[in-house]
Each structure stands twice: as C-alpha cells, then as structure tokens.
Amino acid sequence: MTRGKKILTAFQEGRGYSRTDWNDVSDNPEATDEQLAQARPFREVFPDLAEKIDRKLGRPKSDNPKRAISIRLDAEVVERFKATGEGWQSRINEALRKAVGL
C-alpha cells in the first residue's frame, strides 16, 4: 500500500541511496494491510532507545540561554569583529557584558 506515494520500479540516481542499496532491498515484499494495521510507533515499541536518541539530539540545554534579537550596529564595528575570525558574535556579546558591568 503506497498511501499516495509513487512506487519506484527502477533505480534513480540522486535520491539518497546507492545502486547497491537499491539492489539489496529491491526484492523486499510490500507490507500487507494486515501488517500495517499491526504496526506500532517506534517510541511505543522501543521507549528506552527513543529516549536515548532524543537526549543526543542538539546541544545540551544551557543554564543561561542566549536570545536571538535584531540590533543595528555600525558597519565598521561589525567588520572589525568579523575580521577577528569565527566566534565574532560571542566576542560582541562579551564586549557588551563588560560595557554593562557583568
């Protein structure tokens, strides 16, 4: 059952898998309606594994998260900070912290 998706019957380049991948699974039978009716969500079947996967996604939560804002700065100021390389936004943040006494 395709549920509105087009079934590919031949390998197509550039779809995220190799010809070897295609050949390895091309003879797998399609799931029946009965099998699909018995299917359960991954998180329900493997809750411990799902929790481990969730914990690994993204950065750890910060105790003091930064906020995205929009601010207008002189072009010369931005260029001077950018010229110092990666991390220039963090250096602007540090300069502002010093300016306000933090």
Can you summarize this structure?
The chain has 102 residues and is mostly helical. Helices cover 46% and strands 0% of the residues.
Descriptive account of the structure:
- With 102 residues, the protein is mainly α.
- The protein contains six helices and no strands.
- The chain has helices at 19-25, 33-38, 42-45, 47-56, 75-82, 88-99.
- It starts with 18 loop residues before the first helix and ends with a helix.
- The relative contact order is 0.05.
Please render the helix and strand layout as text.
Layout: H1 19-25, H2 33-38, H3 42-45, H4 47-56, H5 75-82, H6 88-99
Helix content, binned percent: 40-55%
Number of strands: 0
Beta-strand content estimate: under 5%
Task: Choose one word for the global shape.
Answer: elongated
Give the overall average pLDDT.
88
Q: What is the alpha-carbon Rg in Å?
A: 26 Å
- Ranges where pLDDT stays below 50 over 5 or more residues in a row are none
